[in-house]
Structures are given as structure tokens and as C-alpha cells.
Amino acid sequence: MKGIWRYAHWMPTIHVENRISLGEGNTPLLKSKNIGPMWGLEQLYFKLENLNPTGSYKDRFAAMAVSNALEQKKTSILATSSGNTGAALAAFSTAAKMPCKIIIVDGAPFGKLQQMGVYGADLFMVRDFGITATCTTEIMEYLSKLALKEGMSLEISAFCYSPIGMQGVQTIAFELADELPETKYCFVPAGGGGLFHAMQRGYDTYGKMNAGFEAPTLYVVQPKGNDTIATALNDKSTVMKPLAKSRSSISGLQVPSLLDAQAIIDRSSNPNTSGALVDDEEVYYCQQILARKEGIFCEPAGAVALAGLAQAIKDGRINKNEPIVCLITGNGPKDLKSLDKIYTADDCNYIMDLQELTQSIFK
């Protein structure tokens, strides 16, 4: 099989009859045509995870998680999500003929909820869930007990909750190592840190299986309003604290709890890691230039890696001649509300007749 199952020999055993695939993985690695030259970067690449079946890298997680649920003969999928995890799990659960129930982060964009609902999942948005640490912890403890009692597969895109499902995400690192082994820097967005930790583990596994391979420096990029990992990583701190509340507006990265943060710190030297913090407005700007300079339509969270690269350049932490990869993690329709910052109905020229058109078209 193609997709993530190309690397089945490096992942937990899932019998072929239980492997669910919707065509996830094998996403393009696109060399920058315009942003790279604008910023003086000779070798800037974008890993287009926004082109996965449901529009985000979470399809890799869902493929492994739902396949493992079948392998373990679970009754159904129980999950939490701010959008992308839920959409992926809903789609793959449908393909596997498994019921799927999802507890939604308070305030998640309706476009993401709608996608989950279209696939047939049962959705429950809980006030303050995913926003405050107290509520989030309380709900998570309840769900853990419920899943155990009812024989459900609790799937949350973090290694601390779903270590087997998250191994599907490690295949991003495998693909990058195969296609661009000379990569020196890889920028990865983070909320709870699951994706970043998957990249750490993935590159580590690849290195153990391929003598002489040198992993890139991994940059964890977070919005300043959700700094649970980046500063601690840069300060080499071993004491970490959750946030009382996320102050970022970037959907998908509003994770005040630590989740995989400690695991990231514990593995911070293998491969080398660093952190970058970005303003929300810089993220929205990068979303816009990805669309207008590269033709890449992503959600705000999908532009965070590029914003982190911009900050690293400003700080003088990047050799501009070396190969750099930014992960584009989710597609534009995931967060339609954010597009109002880029283009609205008022931006469209309304023309009354041919005469006005001829006068306006070359202005």
C-alpha cells in the first residue's frame, strides 16, 4: 500500500485487513517560487500537508488511530478536537464503519465543525473546553474513564493520549528524510506539541535505520499567546507550567495544557531543537503571502511555520544558503472567518457596464 503504510515496517503491527486509507500521505514538497527569493533564501520548501484527504496532516493520525481501533476491536471512536483532528477521525471512522463521537473545543470555527458533521460524527461543544486548563483537565479525565468503561478508542492527537495513532504522523519526517535528506532547518507549528514531537521521533527513528543520516534542526513555532513550549525550549528549562488560558486567536493552536511539552523537552537534543514565538498578526500576514506569492491556500495555523521562519531570520539564527522546510499543516477552507482579514465582498469591483469595465480593468 502507499501513503503512511509505505512505512508500516517502522510502525506498530496492523494487519492488512485493518489498514484504513483514504489516500493520506505522500504530500508534495514544493520549492518556493517567490517568497524564498524575496527573503534571500536559496532553498526554501513547503511540505503541503494541506493536500491530505480532509485537508490537514491529521489524516495521518486518523489513518493509524482508526486502523488500530479496528485491530483492537474497539466499539467506536471517542475524540476531542478543535477541528482538524475531528474531521480526519470522522472521515476515517466512516470508512471503517465505526461510530464517532467528538467533544469540540469551545469557539472552534464552524467550517471545521461542519466538515466533521458532513462525515456523520456526533458533535458536542463544551463551554471553556480547550480554552481553560481547569475545564480541559476535567473533561479529559471524564473521557478517559468513559472510553475504558465502554470499550471505546479514545483518540486525541497527542502522544500522551494516543501514542499509536501519533506514530502515523511520524511519516512526515520519513518522507522528508527520503526526499530532501540535506534539510538543515524544519519549522513546525505547535499547540500541544504532538506534531513537533512526532517530527522529533520520526527523524530519530529514520536516523537509527539509516547510518550517516543527519537530522535537521527542528523549530517549534508557537503563537505568543500560547507559549507553553518555545520559551522553555530556548531557555533549556525543565520546569513547565500550563497556561490559565490561551490568548491566541489561531484556531488549532489554542492549547493551554502541556500535553506533549515535557516529552519534547526530554528529547530536545535528539535531533537539535529550537523555539520561535510569533504574533497572531504576523501569522495572518504569512497566510496572505502564501496565497498571493505562492498560490498556497492554507488556514492561519498552516502559516505559523513560515511566520516562525521570518522570526528566525530576523534574529539571525538561519543560514540562508541551507535547505529549509516549512510545514503547511491545514487548508484554507478550514477557517473561512480568517479570510476576512485578506479579502471581503467589498474588495470585489462591481461594474455597471462595458464602458466602466474598459475604464477600470487596467487601473
From TrEMBL:
- In terms of superkingdom, the source organism counts as Bacteria
Named cofactor requirement(s): pyridoxal 5'-phosphate
GO MF terms, alphabetically ordered: L-serine ammonia-lyase activity; threonine deaminase activity
Where does the Tryptophan synthase beta chain-like PALP domain start and stop, copy by copy? 20-330
Biological-process GO terms, alphabetical: isoleucine biosynthetic process; L-serine catabolic process; L-threonine catabolic process
Gene3D superfamilies in the cross-refs: 3.40.50.1100
Q: Which UniProt keywords apply?
A: Lyase, Pyridoxal phosphate
Enumerate the SUPFAM superfamilies for this protein.
Tryptophan synthase beta subunit-like PLP-dependent enzymes (SSF53686)
InterPro entries found in the cross-reference section: Ser/Thr_Dehydratase, TrpB-like_PALP, TrpB-like_PALP_sf
The record ties this protein, via PANTHER family, to: L-THREONINE DEHYDRATASE CATABOLIC TDCB, THREONINE DEHYDRATASE, MITOCHONDRIAL-RELATED
Recorded protein name is Threonine synthase
